[in-house]
Amino acid sequence: MTSIADLALLDELREIAVTIACEAGQLASVGRLEGVVVAATKSSADDIVTEMDRRVEALLVERILAARPDDGLLGEEGAERVSTTGVRWIIDPIDGTVNYLYGIAAWGVSVAVEVDGVTVVGVIHSPDLGETYVAVLGQGARRHDARGVHELRVNEPVGIAESLIATGFGYSAERRVAQARVLSHIVRRARDTRRLGACSVDLCMVASGRVDAYYERGTHAWDYAAGGLIVTEAGGHFGGLRGAQPGEEMILAAGPALFAILDGELSRLRADSDETSDVFGPAN
Predict the structure, then answer these.
(1) Can you tell me the mean pLDDT for 72-81?
(2) Does residue 223 have an active-site annotation?
(3) Exactly one of 53, 57, 77, 95 is catalytic; which is it?
């Protein structure tokens, strides 16, 4: 077994994660220029899988197993393998697939690494934005771009009224109605809201201070494992509501004080449910 205190291991995992995320992003970028083919749908007609999703995940798996053949895997497009080392890779080959399909820049390759169930490395490479986000447990978070390397720090606004809050929507019409109900309350209180369409990129925006908070219902580990570490290493909080762990029911990312405020507000609105009736009082 391995140890999260093994600095040499952390360096090795970070180096592999950065290398393969950038290589995968290059493959996806070239494929985007050649034309995107929708291969299948999953939970709904809007939940698409492209041929490039599958090709990029296959590349990531190949590179990981070549470097560390005994590690475990969990990938959005079906890669799954039990670890014998205590190390598991959690990969999303193209997060923000609809953005990728339409040529919108907010998409990325997400690679996270766990050691004994603890996320220790998170890398998100966004080729169209020209940015690579890297975090290592206990070592901070950084953004690499054409201008250099930038230490990341979340914003800490006074309250919701001073906050730019990002969110996302699910693939089913019923869930979107429930999420729109919650947003109708948040949008009246916040400075403004944003919907980028890629969980990993949203989390990087929080870590960079480009938005103040992000919440969403219906995400999975491959969506948020890398980004969650990037947020926490940038001084933020990342979790579910009411002290729960992040998961499909809800994820929330923000600076510590704003996290507590939004945790209370989103809990009051039952944002971690698919409640559609608006019985929660005035949206002000």
Answers:
(1) 96
(2) yes
(3) 95
End-to-end CA distance of the chain: 52
Of 91-95, 111-115, 171-175, 222-226, the one with minimum mean pLDDT is 171-175
Catalytic-residue membership of 47: no
Residue 62 a catalytic site member: no
pLDDT for 32 beyond 90: no
Secondary structure letter of residue 234 according to DSSP: T
Is 104 one of the annotated active-site residues of the chain? Answer: no
Average pLDDT over residues 176-203: 97
CATH of 7-151, one of 3.40.50.300, 3.40.640.10, 3.40.1010.20, 3.30.540.10: 3.30.540.10
Bridge partners (DSSP) listed for residue 238: 253
- DSSP count for the chain of H helices, then E strands: 7, 15
Q: Is 94 a catalytic residue?
A: yes
Extract long-range pairs of 141-144: CB within 8 Å, 24+ residues apart.
141/207, 141/229, 141/230, 141/231, 141/233, 141/234, 143/204, 143/208
Confirm whether 95 is a catalytic residue: yes
Residue 278 pLDDT: 75
pLDDT of residue 41: 67
Mean pLDDT for the stretch of residues 262-283: 85
Candidate list 53, 216, 223, 272, residue with the active-site label: 223
Q: What is the DSSP string of 2-26?
A: --TT-HHHHHHHHHHHHHHHHHHHH
Catalytic hit among 97, 119, 167, 232: 97
The CATH classification number of 160-268 equals 3.40.190.80
Mean pLDDT of 255-278: 95
